[in-house]
Design brief:
This protein is an alpha+beta fold. The chain has 14 helices and 14 strands. It has three domains: 99 residues, no CATH class; 171 residues, Ribonuclease H-like superfamily/Ribonuclease H (Nucleotidyltransferase, domain 5, 2-Layer Sandwich), CATH 3.30.420.10; 76 residues, no CATH class. The radius of gyration is 29 Å and the shape is elongated.
Length: 392
């Protein structure tokens, strides 16, 4: 039964351009009910199953989960089923539906539909979980295709520029292609100067990445409400699904392995509530419109310059690493991979490779570097024996 406040919500959402099917989904009614209510300007009723008493014993648990910002009905169903609930999904959904107006940030927005292969939206989210026995903050980048709603996410300990570019590349590789444009928020890793006139100043390296992969960079306009609504919803979807199901991880690699498995077996196979299609099936229609990946993968390593000391070492992040003796005192370029690989270049030539070490582990010295340094240091001038005899 539609209440007066439901009818007011219908009118308001319609005035803001929200689709009938989305209004119906929000209120838990059929789209035709919404259509009739708008046309005839009166409240319609529909029969509902009585909820009975099966849910009564679990309402406190449900309300607790809602207070913790867990709003996914299927996740809540699994939680209370583990405690003995044997009622239906429908009863639970009908109990939760009126409470959704209390959800933080739950205001309705206009949906922007895009053509196949046109756009990928990117955003970052945060969550705290247990990794290797310690509570850790996880940053995860979410990249979603605007047409098919297929998405990919990757977790790391940072959301700086290098990790942002790595996340974008991993998503392109997961999808097997590149969209015409990528829509990002106004974080400094991608946008140096935001603009309400549609002329943002992009990070030079982000522009370089876009050129290599063949997409046009786009940025949300500041203070525009939910320009990237699709992707922001995916941040919440991941928090309330993947990170509710999985809470403890052996290490970062284990976390990302579970994430990719969950993407393929669950997220890709879900029936999307807006487009009413299986995401993986809809993606097959979008796949042909994606651009190809470059032959050479973009290098997302940190890039720095260093001057080698006269003892043949360079200092990087509080530790010292050896170089060939001939480079003592010279300037070199350093690339630090996100996997901890340290590469040193003189011009375009790779001259040394190390793995980052902690301060406790101490300096990293390669035998061939030290042998060259000792050879040049201990070299003694040789003279004829007669010269020493003359001196005597």
């Amino acid at each position: 039964m539609l209440k007066k406040e439901d009818f007011a919500v219908i009118k308001t959402l319609k005035q803001h351009g929200v689709y009938l099917k989305d209004i119906a989904e929000e209120l838990g009614v059929h789209p035709k009910t919404v259509s009739r209510a708008l046309k005839q300007d009166r409240v319609f009723t529909r029969k509902r199953k009585r909820s009975g008493n099966k849910l009564e014993a679990y309402k406190a648990k449900i309300d607790q989960l809602l207070s913790e910002d867990v709003w996914n009905t299927m996740v809540i169903l699994r939680e209370i089923q583990a405690e003995g609930y044997d009622g239906s999904y429908t009863i639970l959904r009908e109990y939760i539906q009126p409470k959704r107006v209390l959800r933080p940030g739950g205001r309705a927005t206009v949906r922007f539909e895009t053509e196949p292969g046109k756009q990928m939206q990117s955003d970052w989210g945060e969550v705290r979980v247990e990794i290797a026995g310690q509570e850790s903050k996880v940053h995860f980048i979410v990249d979603e295709l605007g047409y098919s709603r297929r998405f990919h996410f990757w977790c790391s300990d940072s959301e700086d520029a290098e990790h942002t570019y790595e996340g974008l590349i991993r998503s392109f590789e997961y999808f097997g292609g590149v969209t015409q444009e990528v829509l990002v928020d106004n974080q400094k890793s991608t946008v140096l100067k935001a603009s309400n006139e549609g002329q943002p100043g992009f990070n030079e390296r982000f522009v370089d990445l876009a050129g290599r992969y063949g997409f046009s960079p786009r940025a949300c306009r500041p203070y525009r409400a939910r320009t990237k609504g699709k992707d922001e919803r995916m941040v919440g979807y991941i928090k309330h699904n993947f990170f509710v199901r999985y809470r403890v991880f052996e290490n970062w690699a284990h976390l990302n392995q579970l994430a990719e498995s969950w993407l393929r077996t669950e997220a890709d196979q879900r029936l999307h509530g807006t487009v009413h299609e299986i995401v993986a099936e809809r993606f097959e229609r979008e796949r042909p419109f994606l651009g190809g990946l470059p032959n050479v993968r973009y290098d997302t390593s940190y890039f720095e310059y260093r001057q080698a000391a006269w003892d043949g070492y360079i200092e990087v992040r509080g530790n010292r690493y050896s170089l060939p003796a001939a480079l003592a005192g010279q300037h070199v370029a350093v690339r630090i991979g996100l996997d901890g690989a340290l590469r040193v270049y003189q011009g375009e030539t790779l001259v040394a490779s190390h793995t980052l070490r902690s301060k406790e582990q101490g300096w990293s010295s390669l035998p061939e570097h030290q042998a060259g340094m000792w050879k040049s240091t201990l070299q003694v001038q040789q003279r004829e024996l007669s010269a020493y005899q003359e001196a005597l």
